Structure formats: structure tokens, C-alpha cells
Amino acid sequence: MDLLNIKDPSFLKKLSMHELEELSEDIRQFLIQELSVTGGHIGPNLGVVELTIALHKSFNSPQDKIIWDVGHQSYVHKILTGRASEFGSLRQYKGLSGFPKMAESQHDVWETGHSSTSLSAAMGMAIARDLKKEKSYIIPVIGDGALTGGMALEALNHIGDEKKNMIVILNDNEMSIAPNVGALHSILGRLRTAGKYQWAKDELEMLLKKIPAVGGKLASTAERVKDSLKYLLVSGIFFEELGFTYLGPVDGHNFDELFENLNYAKKTEGPILLHVITKKGKGYQPAENDRTGNWHGTGPYKIDTGDFVKLNNTTPAWSKVVSETVRKLAREDRRIVAITPAMPVGSKLEGFASEFPDRMYDVGIAEQHATTVAAGLATQKMKPFLAIYSTFLQRAYDQVVHDVCRQNLNVFFGVDRAGLVGADGETHHGVFDIAFLRHLPNMVIMMPKDENEGQNMVYTAIKYDDGPIALRFPRGNGLGVPMDETLTAIPIGSWEVLKEGRDVAILTFGTTIPMAMEAAGILEKQGRSVKVINARFIKPLDESLMTSLLQLNIPLLTIEEAILQGGFGSAVLEFSHDHGFHHGEIERMGIPDQFIEHGNVHELLEEIGLTTEGIVKKINSMTIKKQKGLEI
């Protein structure tokens, strides 16, 4: 079938079972081909081909609401809703998003990039449907990994209690990004091997109804016998006890089983949970065989071999610099414990886990729990290292406030993917952590200019005993600088002058230091002397250096690859005001008050003017204003 001619899913209604099988194969080959060029979430999407087709054939989108949890498995949905021709631009600047996007299609009824939100959103839609007295099916699709998220469990509890009509599809492929962990995962494992029991339960009910009740005795025991069947046939009754009718497990690649169970679910009142077993990466051997999460989301790859097309980058990954330094220090300090919320591969903790299996804890998709576990460890004088992406730390904000900072506990936050991350876009950019961490009492925030300073900051964090400390670092690789053999603690709150100057000063840190230094070089040739400061501690500020700068009464420019509101530049303005310096000019550059979409990081920076050229233009404007002020 020519996938490029698909306009909407209505054509599926007319297809035979054989044609559906052919369509599945066409979609798989299309995805394998297209994603080999653009990269993307190939494993999750190859696993839901038949399931997505079955959903769109059985229901009428967008009247019926299909809600994708996390959203990285929505590529097949995008193809069936008329977006196949846009896949050449997938996850690229101004191109097709890798996640559901309302602006792209009326069939995308919920936007997401974080896990465990679909059930709560579905409940909201179900309440609205019933209040408006509308008729529609609401079908959230959630993975077994996402089901471990606390928000999903809260939603299950509410949905089951309210008995809302809803068909929850549990897409069980035994993995999220890395292999899933936890007791709920074990429950699902038992359910996978238990086989169906709903049909047997219904057949028993019919049989009992045919037997005349004698004095009502049999009638009174029939219901108990029927309900007891689930204890006999299924080793876990978790969902039924929450108020759901459990169907499954079902082979998610078998159309007969899918349609049979979906049709049954449509006729059943109340909340249904259809447990579908799928194979992540199905149809492409390298992705099928993956047990580490490498094929969850990839860059370009060679179809014939499955080899990833790697950039010629020999410098170390930031995540590895941090994790390996923690590992090195853990050999000398048995108090160090590493924690990750389902991201051991992304956070490069495999080495730590292999060397210290008893001190490595993957808690699953449970960022709130991970944070408070770290807090609990810290109360016992341990040294917890919580490796967490900036965008996922947002989900644990209350725990950072209430459980860590309020008790002034010595938790080391490794805030990975800080700044713009590129193709994953607005749900994954790590641009808010400075703003939501900076105002918390007791918190220290730092960011290194290069990987050598990064390893010394890890050492600083481990040696620090006075409360919570966060090391933020970007996605990608370091600069390839020489690395110190002996690690050194950096004095908390100390900045570093990288270049002397007398006309204007740039205060910046991390990823924006190279562009600041380049801009200073250009301005030097234009006759402007620019001081560049590595403001590596975002909190606390270097008060001594700040005071001396403000006393010079020269323009100051702060630069940050983070949201401006409440960010580092705001801290500098606050310091100036609070210490009585009202005459100096302070300008800020950073992420404006908007969500930044997906695309190459350099393109995104250009779009918001956070470039070398933008810095040069800004400083020229500032110094010209300063000169005019002096003339007046």
C-alpha cells in the first residue's frame, strides 16, 4: 500500500485481515527505512504496529479518543492519520514532532513526552464526556513501564472507584527504555503466563444460571464461586481489585485476538483493562534482540547491519564523565549509592552497576520516589547520587522542596541534559531547573565549563556535607580537554575569570562559555575590552567578585542556556538591587518566556538569538548606550 496517500484512518474499515497483515508489513518497512535516516524511537513503534491498526479500525478517531502515554510510540498513529509524507522531517527543525502534537492533527488529542499521564488525561476526558452527555470511547494506551509511575496508579485508583466507561490498553513489552523493574512488573509477568480467564469466568456464569437454584442457596454462592475463579486462574488480581474488568493477556501482534477482545471491551460497562503483549522492535532483528534500551530511540543506522551511524567524536560523553567519576570515588567511599529513575543507560551507570550492584538502585519510572529514597539515605549519613534528567527532575519538585531542601539533606543531584536537547523538543529541554532550584533554601547549583572542571565538581559534591547540591551538565560530549589525575574540590560559590577586560563583563557558565569567549575575541578586534567570567556556581553567587564588578560600574551581560525568568540573570539583578547598586547596566540573554520546539540545538539557539553574533550585537548596543550616558 502507498502509505503516502493515506489521509485518515477510515480506509481501515474496508480492509480484510490479509490486507491488514500486508499493511503491517508495509508500515514496518517504511519505519525501518525512514528512521535509518532521521533516527527516532524505532523500538517502541515497531512493537505497536498491529495494535495501532486494530485501534483505528475498531474505533472512530478523533470522536473516540486514543491517548498515547509518553507518545514516543505514536509514529504508526501518525502514518494512519495522514502524515507519512512528512517523515523525512521527523524530529528536525520545523519538521514532524516525535511526539503527539495537536497542531499537527485533530487525531492527536493529548500531547505528551513524559510517562504516566495518559490515564489521568483519559479520566478528565471521560468526566467531560459524561457531563456533556456525549457518546464516545476513550482509549488510553499505557506501557508496563509507565504503569509504575505514581501518577498512573493514582489514576487507576480513581477510575476504578468512579466506574467510568473507559478501555485502558496496557501495552506490555517488558521494557520502558531499560528493562523494567519492581513488584508491579513481577505481577505483570505472572499475568503474562497465566492465560485468559475472562472467557472462562463468563462461561461459568452462564452455566450456573442454567442450574435451578434450590432455596436460593446455589444463587447466593454462585457469585462467590465465579469471583473465586480469578484466584484460581490468575496469580495476580491487582486490576480487578481496583475495579477494572481485566481482559487478557492478548497477543498484540495477532489481529484475531485483538479484534475479539476490543469488541468484547466495547460491549462491557465500566473501566476495562486490556492487557496486550507486544514485542519491542518487532520485525527488525537488531531492535528485537535489544535488552539494554539502545534501540528505544536512536540516531541514524545502517539497515543491513544495524550499526549506528556514529559522529566522529572522540571526546567523552558528559553523562559518562560524571558517572565514571562517581564510580571512581565510590571505590574509596562506601557511603556512595547511585539511584536512577529508569535511566541507567542514558545516565551511563552500567559501569557503576556492574562494579557496585549492591549500591545501585533503578527504581523504575518513579522520580518522586527516587528523590525521597535519596533523602532517606542521606538521613543515615550515606552519600546518595541521584542521576536524573533535568526534564524529569521537574516531576519531583515537591520532594526536592519538602523532603530534601527543607531538611537540608546531603543529596547529590546529577542533573543531566541541562539546556536544549534537540530532537526530543519542548517536553525534554532542560531549561527550567535553575529557575525551580535556585529559590530553594540550602540548595547549591553548579555547572562546569568543561569535563575536567566537571569531574572536579563531582568530587566537590561528594566532599560537600552541608546540604543538597546539584551539578547540571548538558547532553552530548565534552570538549576533549586534558583531565586532572588528582581531583580537587572547588570552593563553593567561587567564580573564575577567564579573560580580563575593562569595558564590559560577561557572566556565563557551561555551554555558553565558548560563544562568550569567541564574541569577546571579535569585540577585542573592534576595540572593546571584554571581561569573561566563568560563573560556575549559579547558587551561591561569588559575592566578592560580584561586588567588585558592580563597583567598576561597567555594563554586565549574563548569558544562560536556560529560562530567563527566575534564572541566573535574575539572581545577578537581585544581588545588584539588594546591595544598593542601581546605576550599573545589566542585560540578560537566555531562553525567552516560551516553550522551544524540536530541532538541531544550533538552529534553536539561532532562532532565539543566543549566538556569538547575538552576543556581539548585544554588547555593542550596551557599550554605545554607556558612552551616550557618559556624554550626557
Structural summary, described in words:
Mean pLDDT is 90; it is low at 214-236. Helices cover 41% and strands 14% of the residues. It is built from 24 helices and 17 strands. The chain has 632 residues and is α/β, with parallel strands linked by helices. The strands form three sheets. The chain has a seven-stranded mixed β-sheet with strand order 7-6-8-9-11-10-15, with helices on both faces. Strands 1-2-3-5-4 form a five-stranded parallel β-sheet, sandwiched between helices. α8 runs antiparallel to α9 (217-233). The radius of gyration is 28 Å and the shape is globular. β6 (336-340), α14 (350-355) and β7 form a beta-alpha-beta unit.
Helices and strands, with pairings:
Layout lengths: L16 H22 L3 H5 L2 H10 L6 E4 L6 H9 L34 H14 L6 E6 L6 H13 L3 E7 L10 H12 L3 H13 L6 H17 L4 H4 L3 E7 L3 H13 L3 E7 L7 H4 L29 H13 L5 E5 L9 H6 L4 E3 L4 H13 L3 E7 H4 L3 H9 L6 E5 L16 H6 L5 E3 L4 H13 L5 E4 L23 E4 L4 E5 L4 H13 L4 E5 L2 E3 L3 H10 L3 E8 L4 H11 L7 E6 L9 H8 L3 H20 L1
Parallel strand pairs: 1-2, 2-3, 3-5, 4-5, 6-7, 6-8, 8-9, 9-11, 10-11, 13-14, 13-16, 16-17
Antiparallel strand pairs: 10-15, 12-14
